[in-house]
Amino acid sequence: MSASSLDLTFAALADPTRRAILSMLLEDDMAVTDVAEPFEMSLAAISKHLAILAHAGLITQEKRGRVKWCKLEPDALRAASVWMQGFGQFEPIHLDEFEAFLARELDGADTQGG
Length: 114
Prior knowledge:
Oligomer: single chain
C-alpha cells in the first residue's frame, strides 16, 4: 500500500461520523438516505463524508434505479492492518473486533456530548 493510500485510509477513519457510517455498513448495504437518518446533519454533509470514504476505498457507491447505495469494502482495511502489524505491537484487524471498537468509541463520544 502506498503512503498516499494509507493517508487516505487513516484520514477517513479520523472522523467519528465516518467511523459510525462504517459501523452501520457492517450490517448491510444501505441507501444514502438511510445512512443519513441517524445523524443531525444535512444530506449534503453526509454525502461529503461518503465521498471521503469512497475516495479512500473503504466503501463503494452504486446507483440502483433512483437510489444511491453504499457498500462496505471489508478488505479495504487489510493493507492498513498489515502496515500497523509491521510495528509488531498491533494485532490483525478482524471485522467483529473492529465493530466492537467502533461501538466503544461511539459510546464514548455520546457520553462526552459529541
